[in-house]
Amino acid sequence: MTSLAGKSVLLIVGGGIAAYKVHELVRLLKTRGATVRIILTRAAEQFVTPLSLASLSGEKVYTSLFSLTDEVEMGHIQLSRAADLLVVAPATADLIAKMANGLADDLASTALLATDKRILVAPAMNVRMWRHPATMRNIETLQRDGVTLAGPSDGEMACGEFGPGRMAEPNEILTAIVDMLKPKAQPLAGRKVVITAGPTREPIDPVRFISNHSSGKQGYAIARAAVELGAETVLVSGPVSLPIPPGVQLMPVETAQEMLEICEGEMPADIAIFTAAVADWRVAAEAPEKIKKTGSGPPSLMLAENPDILATISRSAKRPRIVVGFAAETEHVTEHAVQKLKRKGCDLIVANDVSRDAGVFGGDRNTIHLVSATGVEDWPQMSKDDVAQKLMERLAQMLVPQQKTEE
Ligand code: CTP
Known about the structure:
With 407 residues, this protein is of the alpha/beta class. The protein is 33% helix and 24% strand.
């Protein structure tokens, strides 16, 4: 039985019939030695009482954002910061919607917004509410934000309907908590990883540019995975609309030239991963003023080739031990990737099969082939987060072969 002694969990209880199950969850956490602080939403107070949970947890139970005594004893910021993990159980559709949209109108939602810790969410609601596109959208948003889900499971609901929406059982939530709190192997501690991500933006004039549709999702997921393995992680990113992953040093850039300069300045590094969709061309001479319509037809733009950042770094004197490139291919995926590997002088090419899965660009899943000098590995379709985790674990193994990374 893994001990949780010294660990502190902030349990946020939403207002649903499943709230009665948190008594058992609190008891299980206490048996493992964890400190459990609890926040009840106003609706949760209709299902469970602060008194019963305070008796079980041995701690004061918090309810109101505007309670003078609560704020004096432990304010909402401190409550969420003092915890090692936040657990939302039961997470009602309403609480999930608030989290997904960053609302903070009570103590529970404020603590969730103020935290810099990991969050586990155990949804519980009627099957139709769970399946509603709004809830599905909110859940997707939370997963993108790095929130972990426990459940919901299938079964008969309090309302008499069947289907997904039942809160995970307390022992399942406990297993997820133990998993999230157990110390992770950090094989990349003391190592530096540089990652490029997103598109570049090449100006035509002060108001126009050439760019592409890269979302940056895969690169950002890799940055998160690198941080998890303990690496000093530098993310050189073109313009994207993604949150900055915690623990990552973000270097925002616009053009390919800027991206190259920043990457060169970040060398030496142990690993460099080039996921950016760098614009192949820039306008040779950016117009200093907005190009006006002259009435004599459209202007001609003279293009110049951008530097190949991957090839430049991989052939530089300060080449990282491991250099990884990405390739988007629609046909002859591995053949082209093998050629690219040689042409760019990198150790691995992660080839995206963009033909089979039209949702790769901007989507959350990816089908990849890992191409090295020794062969090709076909990975099954998986989420961009799973690709990132698996890839970083593989790179850590290549860099530090004597250490076994955690599966
Ligand atoms: N890359 C780079 N700098 C560039 C162009 C590409 O660093 N100026 C990197 C990308 O980040 C990626 C890989 O090189 O890791 C992709 O190579 P690229 O030649 O652009 O391949 P594709 O985009 O797949 O296009 P093509 O097949 O037309 O060569």
